[in-house]
Design a protein that fits this description.
3-stranded antiparallel beta sheet; two-stranded antiparallel ribbon; 11 strands; 4% helix
């Protein structure tokens, strides 16, 4: 008898063994990764097939980007200068992943 339930990133499966003698019942628990997760070193980790260039894979197919980056795989630079989110009062110079303010 298999009993399986998906909890977060992994299945916990209990296999009920009944020996020929009816004196004892043994249970074994196995861990399997849920869909969208991969197994490594006995743990389940979320999988992002597109990769997360400047971020982390935090859920299946979901990247959480570092500051200054956007896109499905965190590979698109946010131009803080043209987006108006830099806070620069004078000159704003955008670079990949960050920006700098300077005086003229």
């Amino acid at each position: 008898l298999w009993l399986s339930t998906c909890y977060g990133s992994s299945y916990k499966s209990a296999y009920h063994l009944t020996p020929q003698t009816n004196y004892a019942t043994a249970y074994r628990t196995f861990t399997y990764c849920c869909p969208g997760y991969l197994s490594a070193n006995g743990n389940c980790y979320s999988y992002c097939p597109q990769g997360c260039q400047y971020g982390d894979c935090t859920a299946p197919n979901t990247c959480t980007c570092q500051s200054g980056w956007t896109g499905d795989s965190c590979n698109i630079d946010i131009n803080e200068c043209t987006e108006g989110i830099s806070g620069c009062s004078d000159v704003c110079e955008n670079s990949p992943g960050y920006f700098e303010c300077s005086c003229p």
